[in-house]
Amino acid sequence: MPFVIDIDPVAFRVAGTDIRWYGLTLALAMLVAYAVADHETRRRRLPAGLVADSVLWVAAAALVGGRLLYVLQNGLPDLAAHPAHLLMVWTGGLSFYGGLATGLIAIVVLARRRGVDWLTALDVAAPAAAVGQAIGHVGCLIGGDSAGIPTTVPWAVVYRNPGAMAPLGTPLHPTQAYEALALLGLFVVLWSLRRRAALTVPGALAASYLGGLAAIRFALFFLRDEPSVLFGLKTAQLIGIAIGILAIGLALLARRRSRPVNPHPMPLEVA
Question: What pLDDT, on the 0 to 100 scale, is given for residue 271?
């Protein structure tokens, strides 16, 4: 028996403005991610206030990048008719990879400006990003954004509310729940292993996050109702492959930086 979701995407209204569940979960995701990143900053004894000084810039960059790529991929007709549509992030519709790209760029730029190793800054952000994304997908599940393909599995979801972004009355794969659980699992793994020697090298934790993220997204998009664009793969899967390659490059960089350098090598003995 499918699970029925008949929840109005609008949680409540304030002064005539709709406050949606998507926006509320997004705010909660940012708060939790902030707390996780701040904890890691203190544990690593990085400059005080690093996260507080950076969080708004990183969040803004991620939201702008996520919304811009989503609109370019899905909402150009709406944008042409209503240019303000580009700014309506609270209505749902953010491209994960767009937000990831601009968020990473913002972290690197801000870290360099504060004199912090950028690989270490990415390591701090990795578990925070994973748990924040997991929470954010709960909002997608409520509103029907990023819904899966039709299915007959017992745990399928059926949307009934006319405000939902998913097709109504059709049992669908709850890909939002799949991704939330997978990302939560990734967070637990990163959090548990962040003190291990192999992952204390700057960049190793970030590489693990990006690799796990790429694998999760690549697998789940087989269950998303989106057109294939190349070799039977969807746009997000092709981007996921690129993210996986980036993760490998980051891991190699981290490994290279972990090797001790002997500035005074011993001379070779000649027999």
Answer: 44
* Residues spanned by the domain of 61: 3-258
pTM of the model: 0.83
Query: Quick check: is 238 in a domain?
Result: yes
For tokens 């240019």, name the residue.
83
Q: Is residue 220 one of the residues assigned to a domain? A: yes
48: in domain: yes
Q: Using only the alpha carbons of the chain, give its radius of gyration.
A: 21
The DSSP-derived string for the chain is -PEEE---SEEEEETTEEEEHHHHHHHHHHHHHHHHHHHHHHHTTPPTTHHHHHHHHHHHHHHHHHHHHHHHHH-HHHHHH-GGGGG-GGGS---HHHHHHHHHHHHHHHHHHTT--HHHHHHHHHHHHHHHHHHHHHHHHHHTTT-B-B---TT-EEE--TT-SSPBTS-B--HHHHHHHHHHHHHHHHHHHTTSHHHHSTTHHHHHHHHHHHHHHHHHGGGB---EEETTEEHHHHHHHHHHHHHHHHHHHHHHHHS---SSPPPPP--
pLDDT bracket for residue 264 (50, 70, 90):
low
Cα–Cα distance measured from residue 77 to residue 231, given in angstroms and rounded to the nearest whole number: 28
In-domain check, residue 141: yes
pLDDT of 59 > 90? The answer is no
Q: How confident is the model at residue 185 (pLDDT cuts 50, 70, 90)?
A: very high
How many structural domains are present in the chain?
A: 1
Instruction: Summarize pLDDT for 79-135 with one digit per residue, the tens.
Output: 566 555 556 655 556 677 788 888 889 988 988 888 889 999 999 999 999 999 999
